[in-house]
Design goal:
Elements: H1 19-28, H2 40-45, H3 52-63, H4 70-77, H5 84-88, H6 95-110, H7 114-126, H8 130-142, H9 149-152, E1 171-175, H10 181-184, H11 187-198, E2 201-205, H12 214-218, H13 222-241, E3 247-249, H14 252-258, H15 261-264, H16 272-281, E4 282-284, H17 285-290, E5 303-306, H18 310-315, H19 321-328, E6 332-333, H20 349-352, H21 354-369, E7 375-378, H22 381-388, E8 394-397
Parallel strand pairs: 1-2, 1-3, 3-4, 5-6, 5-7, 7-8
Helix pairs in contact: 3-6, 4-6
Length: 403
């Protein structure tokens, strides 16, 4: 695709994806349209501008100098950033990087209405900060009887959390506290700690860690996202210097962001080297377990339908890894049609685009429940809570199935 970026598009408008990289991404697109075949929003809406190829054209126009409109913004807002198009694309177009840069510029040019701006400000100022989110969640739980059903269903009940293993193994790995997961589903990280403890690995809770920054980054609050990333890098460096093997992620959405720190800070004279080291150390819990002897674990006999989060299969390109581990220890996995499609959670997409999100969730649940599994398992807390709100079966993180 021939392109020439407008002169006024400079570093102040972009993240780590500079002019040269964006031009290269645009030129890689050969207009084939294969991406539309796997795009969830194109499948639902049938509009070329609600598919990757159409959105690439919209972003290209803005980068070449055409003023962005609210309509342009609407089509970009509808994108889930699931990156299924990247998995499908025969030309290797890095659509996700282009989308983040394009959204940032479009939001600056088109602006937003008062209500939309307020909603997004709440999301970026509350959700990435653990204590603020915990307070909000406690308030929501107390007000549950007064909330409308669609919002009520999104609020999980509080679950008790047991003690963290006090292991003294020579092998050590770390885990960042994150933002919403400790409040929504504290059992996930605890299960990971117990599993690793049985394998002779101590999982250390990294002090002073923060949100990975994915939520504000994808909502055009990239300075805020990078500040959170720097905090995580600074928090983990002392542990890495003391021999910590890996930074473990139990949320695939956080993992794909944390693995990208090296690229985001590649031009930063202070953080480039530290960020590259940090990202190289990040491993999804499935990557960790894939290299270990799992003979000490046994399946419970339940049949499992596995929902592979987009951030796991399209972002981290780890499709099939948790499924292989579950099957290795004896679980029976039921078939799931259109497993590449997004469940509709997509970070805070379910809050910003509720109608599309519900349609995607209902379709995903129909596929997951078709073979009547005993349980549904996933690898990301957002997918878990989104699916559980309407699921007939219990939804768990797959690491909780290792006993």
């Amino acid at each position: 695709m021939h392109t020439r970026l407008a002169d006024h598009i400079d570093a102040t408008h972009l993240d780590a994806s500079g002019r040269g990289e964006l031009e290269a991404i645009l030129r890689a697109c050969v207009h084939c349209g294969f991406c539309n075949a796997t795009c969830p929003t194109y499948q639902l809406l049938g509009d070329e501008l609600d598919g990757p190829r159409g959105r690439i054209y919209l972003i290209k126009q803005v980068l070449e100098g055409q003023t962005a409109t609210r309509l342009t913004q609407t089509h970009l807002d509808r994108c889930l950033t699931c990156r299924a198009c990247e998995t499908t694309c025969p030309s290797g177009v890095q659509y996700g990087r282009l989308l983040d840069a394009g959204r940032n510029i479009v939001d600056r040019q088109a602006g937003r209405g008062v209500i939309d701006r307020l909603k997004r400000n709440v999301l970026v100022r509350v959700f990435p900060y653990r204590r603020r989110f915990e307070l909000l969640l406690k308030m929501a739980r107390r007000l549950r009887p007064l909330l409308p059903p669609d919002l009520n269903s999104k609020i999980p009940h509080a679950t008790p959390q047991g003690p963290w293993p006090r292991s003294k193994h020579a092998r050590k790995m770390g885990i960042l506290p994150g933002c919403v997961q400790p409040a929504l589903a504290p059992a996930i990280d605890l299960a990971a700690a117990r599993v690793l403890d049985r394998l002779g690995i101590a999982l250390l809770q990294v002090e002073n860690g923060a949100c990975c920054g994915a939520l504000p980054y994808h909502l055009s609050a990239q300075d805020r996202a990078l500040a959170l990333a720097r905090k995580n890098i600074d928090a983990c460096v002392p542990y890495l210097e003391q021999g910590m093997e890996a930074i473990v992620s139990t949320a695939s959405g956080c993992g794909v962001m944390a693995k990208d720190y090296g690229r985001l800070f590649k031009e930063d004279p202070v953080y480039a080297e530290k960020a590259a080291r940090f990202s190289a150390t990040v491993k999804d819990i499935a990557e960790v377990l894939a290299g270990e002897d799992l003979s000490c674990f046994q399946a419970s006999g339940h049949s499992i339908a596995f929902q592979s989060p987009c951030t796991l299969q399209h972002g981290q390109r780890l499709k099939g890894l948790p499924e292989a581990i579950l099957q290795k220890i004896g679980y029976r996995l039921t078939p799931v049609s259109d497993a590449h499609l997004c469940c509709g959670s997509a970070g805070v997409y379910s809050l910003l685009q509720p109608e599309l999100s519900v349609k995607l969730r209902d379709g995903k649940l129909q596929a997951l429940q078709a073979a009547r599994p005993d349980l549904i398992a996933t690898a990301n807390v957002g997918c878990l809570t989104h699916l559980q709100a309407a699921s007939q079966q219990k939804v768990v993180h797959w690491i909780e199935l290792l006993h």
